[in-house]
Specification:
764 residues; Barwin-like endoglucanases; Rossmann fold; six-stranded mixed sheet; 29 helices; 17% strand; binds ligand MGD; binds molybdenum atom
């Protein structure tokens, strides 16, 4: 292999295809329902579309692979949304990527294609190997594939030279076995997508409330007086959340939307399923939109807390009996000046006071957030500021109130619960060791950014990915590519073709696996798996479609086979894969809160994992109290002429999977290589929409360049710009990460915009 394949995510480069329309004012509704059906039918045909869409999120169906938002009582016939349906259709596509496809397309040839094209080719059907010096993947038997991995592991001088990545669709059963395998082998090198996602939430909340998860249930939305939605675009990324917000609103809740963009989903909403009832009206959602500057949230929290202090909207009894650290936060907040808050947020004192008064009147407030908070330098501390605000009013551990990080991947929370973590607690490890008769390593493993660094330094023999698309999801594409090319063997367990199959180690394997929608039949018969949603409810998921190929294997079977080939322990790993009940029995004894797992998980709608703040208003911190944590405001100034860029999702993608080239709600069609920019900022530069620019990012004296982006005038604060992930990942500096969580700062990239070819910065 030449080793210089295009590592960058690319988009079909037809600039004339860009159509700019007015951003939509209503989310969902008939266009969403139409898009759902058309998308489904074009990928799967009519019969399969109806069959799959009627079994998503039903008690005996499969869990939607779209997002981690919880299901209501599984009552409606169609519990799905437009983007969930796209995720399902994408997996259940009728197209196939077979060995002859790989014979016809060299790796170099595939690397020239866009990410959109790669995904469109269909489901992977056979295990494939890319041998050193070869330009094409060739078919390999499952046995030979595992022998190859086992030989690599055995020849490696340390278990820590192997790295095991996980994306967030993996089931609890597969994830539990996978971490048991890695720890039996002797490493905690288990980076996961969470490192790039809600790691900041986990770290932040662990310190403040003693659990790294949210504290609300879906039912709480029906009892909230105020719901604050910060740094989140639910209309696109968690469409079913809009139903919960609409219901809350009908019951009298006020909604405060904090976002640099006026995201359509929070403006007006029309339930896609209502159109079947011939109800044509839409409903407004957000009562206030605080159009904050990127990175201004910590200052906003100080402003909102100032108002709570001034109006004495405090739960004094709760603060006194159940918390620690209030006084120092109070002092910090008082000493923050309004002028500073106004500069950092770009909002007026009046706007913040209006929202603050709304909160002060509330008896029960829920704060929701996603990537707009976590992917910042101060990702951990800003979440602790949100927690300060919520704790101040006692909005936790009572009906209708609490903290609600809205998770991304459908089982990312479950994977962490069952042990996918590079820095597991001693309590977790000692219980695992006792139940499974192993001696887990205690030294922490590498997270995503550290994994890239370790690979670049030549310290990795094996990089094994359980799902995901590492090269495109990670920051600093070129640095990641350099790392991957340095590894002896890279392995991708995947459902669809992606760029991570093209930027590889010396030898590379593709192991094709079953998806959520598909039947999983093992020796003892048909299996189901279990998953945990964003609100800590664990339930079953069972696919019903015929697998895309007879050569596909379940992730559980793949881990069992890998362990059998690579380890010389006495556990009968294959036997565990014959009947997943046996894995769940092992989980019952190895995991806190999983007692009687097999019984409890089959109760309709599943069961809730223990959550002390929510269940009993208690906090599992060293002193048993909830902690207020004080932070200085971050410096959000940037040099003159620079812009702050956030990298966000369009309406037609699932992370690195590009379904189509449009962003319907934002009115952008046909091109993804675009920059959303403030119109006044554009006039200042003498630019108009459709003008082409090059982007250069700056970090600690390093510059990264990406050429050929098309401008779109948009309602975004001055000085801020937005681009789509993954195309813009090449501009995210590897070392620019959040303090404590080490999450790449994908929402804070300092950039300049240049005329094409201008400037002395090279595109690498
Ligand atoms: N259809 C679909 N569904 C998905 C996904 C998908 O790609 N497609 N991805 C899944 C995954 S893994 C995740 S993590 C979630 C992601 O869900 P989101 O977090 O909603 O995803 P992003 O597009 O990254 O949007 C971040 C939002 O934060 C705002 N924002 C950016 N910077 C700031 C800031 O400094 N302050 C504030 N207040 N707001 C800011 C942006 O304008 C945007 O609205 O969605 C999940 N669901
Ligand atoms: N710049 C920038 N970068 C980001 C983000 C951002 O907002 N901005 N967001 C970050 C976030 S929040 C996340 S979560 C990560 C996502 O990072 P990843 O989880 O690594 O990426 P995905 O795009 O979700 O992975 C898609 C691939 O997963 C495989 N797949 C799908 N379903 C299955 C399955 O059931 N089993 C297996 N084994 N494989 C499957 C398919 O082959 C598909 O190509 O990206 C992060 N990167
Ligand atoms: Mo995510």
């Amino acid at each position: 292999m030449s080793g210089r394949e295009n590592a960058r995510a690319t988009t079909p480069p037809d600039r004339n295809a860009l159509k700019i329309k007015k951003p939509k004012s209503v989310a969902a509704g008939i266009p969403a329902a139409k898009s759902t059906m058309l998308h489904g039918i074009s990928r799967m045909g009519i019969t399969k579309t109806i069959k799959t869409l009627t079994t998503v999120n039903q008690p005996d169906g499969f869990d939607c692979p779209g997002c981690a938002w919880p299901d209501p009582e599984h009552s409606t016939m169609f519990e799905f949304c437009e983007n969930g349906a796209k995720a399902v259709a994408d997996e259940a596509t009728n197209k196939r990527v077979t060995p002859s496809f790989f014979a016809n397309h060299s790796v170099q040839n595939l690397a020239e294609k866009s990410d959109y094209w790669l995904n469109k080719q269909g489901r992977l059907t056979h295990p494939m190997v890319l041998n050193p010096g070869s330009n094409n993947y060739q078919e390999i038997s499952w046995n030979d594939a595992f022998d190859l991995i086992a030989t690599n592991i055995k020849q490696s001088t340390s278990p820590d030279h192997s790295i095991f990545y996980t994306s967030g669709r993996t089931s609890n059963e597969a994830a539990f076995l996978y971490q048991l395998f890695a720890r039996t082998l002797g490493t905690n090198n288990m980076p996961d997508c969470s490192n790039m996602c809600h790691e900041s939430s986990g770290r932040g909340l662990g310190e403040t409330i003693g659990i790294g998860k949210g504290t609300v249930s879906l039912e709480d939305f029906n009892h909230a007086d105020v719901i604050v939605v910060i740094g989140q675009n639910p209309g696109t990324n968690h469409p079913r959340m809009l139903t919960a917000l609409r219901d809350a609103k009908r019951l009298g809740a006020k909604i405060i939307h904090v976002n640099p963009l006026p995201e359509t989903g929070l403006v007006r909403f029309k339930h896609p399923q209502d159109y079947m009832k011939m109800s044509l009206g839409s409903e407004p959602l957000a009562d206030i939109h605080l159009q904050i500057k990127i990175g201004g949230d910590a200052a906003l929290m100080h402003g909102l807390m100032k108002v709570q202090l001034e109006l004495d909207a405090l739960d004094h009894e709760f603060i006194k009996n159940s918390t620690q650290g209030f006084d120092s936060v109070k002092e910090a907040v008082i000493s923050t000046r309004w002028s500073q808050i106004e500069i950092d947020t770009g909002l007026t004192r009046f706007q913040i006071e209006t929202a603050g008064r709304m909160m002060a009147k509330s008896n029960s407030t829920i704060a929701c957030w996603a990537m707009g908070l976590t992917q910042h330098k101060n990702g951990v501390s800003v979440i602790q500021e949100v927690s300060n605000l919520i704790l101040m009013g006692g909005h936790i551990g009572k009906k209708g109130a609490g903290l609600c990080p809205v998770r991304g991947h459908s089982n990312v929370q479950g994977d962490r619960t069952v042990g996918i973590w590079e820095r597991p607690s001693e309590a977790f490890l000692s219980r695992l060791d006792a139940a499974c008769g192993i001696e887990s390593p205690r030294e922490h493993g590498v997270d995503v950014v550290e994994a890239i660094q370790q690979m670049r330094d030549g310290g990795a023999d094996l990089f094994f990915c359980m799902g995901g698309n590492f090269i495109s999801a990670t920051p600093d594409t070129e640095a990641t590519a350099e790392g991957l090319r340095n590894v002896k063997l890279t392995v991708q367990v995947s459902t669809k073709l992606n760029r991570s199959h093209l930027v590889t180690g010396e030898t590379a394997l593709i192991l094709p696996c079953l998806g959520r929608t598909e039947m999983d039949i093992q020796e003892s018969g048909k299996q189901f798996v279990t998953v945990e949603n964003s609100m800590g409810i664990v339930h079953t998921s069972e696919g019903s479609l015929r697998p895309a190929s007879t050569h596909l294997r379940s992730e559980v079977w793949i881990v069992s086979s890998l362990a059998t080939a690579a380890l010389s322990d006495t556990r009968d790993w294959m036997d565990l894969s014959h009947n997943y009940d046996q894995i769940r029995d092992l989980m019952s004894s190895a995991l806190a809160g999983f007692e009687d797992y097999n019984v409890r998980v089959t109760t309709p709608n599943g069961f809730a994992l223990p959550n002390p703040p929510r269940d009993t208003r208690t906090f599992d911190t060293p002193d048993g109290k909830a902690h207020f944590i004080e932070h200085a405001l971050p410096d959000v100034s940037v040099p003159d002429g620079n812009y702050v860029m956030m990298t966000i999702r369009s309406h037609d993608q699932y992370n690195t999977t590009i379904y189509d080239l449009h962003d319907r709600y934002r009115g952008v069609h046909g091109n993804r290589r675009i920059v959303l920019m403030n119109a006044t900022d554009m006039i200042e530069r003498g630019w108009k929409s459709r003008h082409i620019v090059d982007i250069v990012s700056h970090y600690e004296g390093e510059n990264r360049r990406s050429d050929g982006w098309q401008l779109v005038a948009y309602d975004i604060p001055r000085g801020n710009i937005a681009t789509y992930f993954p195309e813009a990942n090449v501009l995210v500096p590897l070392n620019s990460t959040a303090e404590k969580s080490n999450t790449p700062t994908s929402k804070w990239i300092v950039c300049s915009l240049l005329e094409p070819g201008q400037g002395n910065f090279e595109e690498e």
